[in-house]
Amino acid sequence: MKNEFSKLKRKIILQITLILLLTLLVGFFIYYVLIDGVLQAPFADMFISFCENVLHLDFYSSQNIYSSLFRRNKSLWLAIGFILLLLIIFYVALSRFTRYFNEISEGVDLLTEESETEIHLPSELEFMEKKLKTVKSKLEKRAKDAKEAEQRKNDLVVYLAHDIKTPLTSVIGYLSLLDEASDMPLEQKEKYLKITLEKATRLEQLINEFFEITRFNLQTILLDKETINLNYMLLQMADEFYPLLAPYGKQAIVNVEESLKINADAIKIARVFNNILKNAIAYSDENSIIEIRAFSNDENTIITFTNKGKAIPPHKLDMIFEKFYRLDSSRTSHTGGAGLGLAIAKEIVHAHGGSIFAESNDENTVFTVTIPTHS
Where is the Histidine kinase domain (predicted)? Predict the structure, then answer.
């Protein structure tokens, strides 16, 4: 900041120095030219003539007044001249400062008004202009991201509302058939009950997603940290996902030291791994392996989830961690979630002081979570 103001400071000092030099020149002009120089006689004659013609004084009285006022008070008049010039300097310098503040204020107004007008400041305030433009750019990006997130949220709610109607209609339809046909064969009843249960379960999932959308912006992440055996947690999670992996010939393999531990909120960090693993399962190739690795150094514990599948485009690698963003917009809510899983994972990891990011190429996609070792 000190270096940024140096250009402005130099210009103001230069301006004040020039005005001071001008003041000295004017002062010397008054003293050596007007009072005690080449213009002394004409000035004296003009003053005496004024006293004679306007004030109706005689020549000697006018001459005495001139001598009393000017000849005997040269230093006083010189001091008065310098004081007046110094006041002018102060006024000019203050005007310059005021102009700088006004221009900065106008730039801030453009920010608050979200105006499309470009911010322009004097060259000596170039550093401030850059800062204001940076803030404006960030605010515009945030506004754009918020608008896009809100649109994605609204679209998702519409999709979910439509999808809720489908299983609900099926539940009502099959229950109506069971109610109306009391003599229905037992085998057919069991079939209808099984379908009804599946539709009701799907309906519960959709309702849970609605709650997830509602809670996301209202939830404050509070951590209850404890020592966690990372190997045990990840093995248990891989086992829990077996029913989702097996039908597609997929496997989740955990390569983590048995003694590796982290200090974190067990429930919330498990949710992070859960969301990443679900994403890996959803977008990995059939008959492929999802590899989970972890290691620790002095500063961080790094956990990676690697799966083989279609590459994520580079411009979407950051967007997948935004709320309500779904990588494949063609996936319906039946096959994809509310687009909150990775966004929530990011919030939880950041609350732990860590980071989360993704890398992807034609061979595999890797999600990396970093948690401070001594958090």
Answer: 159-375
Q: Are 366 and 360 in contact (CB under 8 A)?
A: yes
Cα 357 from Cα 363, distance rounded (Å): 17
Spatial distance between the Cα atoms of 13 and 18, rounded to a whole number of angstroms: 9
DSSP 3-state of 234: helix
Half-sphere exposure of 120 (CA within 13 A, CB side): 2
Phi, psi of 259 (to 5 degrees): -90, 0
For 323, phi then psi, to 5°, come to: -65, 140
With contact defined as beta carbons under 8 Å apart, do 340 and 328 qualify? no
Domain ranges of the chain: 2-117, 146-216, 225-372
Q: Are 210 and 160 in contact (CB under 8 A)?
A: yes
CA distance 54 to 358: 93
In angstroms, rounded to a whole number, what is the distance separating the alpha carbons of residues 368 and 317?
A: 12
Residue 355 pairs with which residues in a beta bridge? Answer: 370
Q: Which CATH architecture has domain 225-372?
A: 2-Layer Sandwich (3.30)
Distance CA 245, CA 281 (A): 7
| Domain 146-216 in CATH 3.10.330.20 | no
Q: What is the pTM of this model?
A: 0.51
Q: Measure the CA–CA gap between 307 and 284, rounded to whole angstroms.
A: 6
What's the whole-number mean pLDDT along residues 251-277? 91
**Separation between Cα atoms, residue 266 and residue 174, nearest integer Å:** 42
Tokens of 61: 């009285």
Summarize pLDDT for 297-330 with one digit per residue, the tens. 888 999 999 999 888 888 777 778 776 565 554 4
- In this structure, are residues 324 and 338 in contact, taking their beta carbons and an 8 Å threshold? yes
CB 216, CB 156: distance < 8 Å:
no
Instruction: Report CA-CA distances (Å) from 52 to 62, 300, 348.
Output: 7, 97, 94
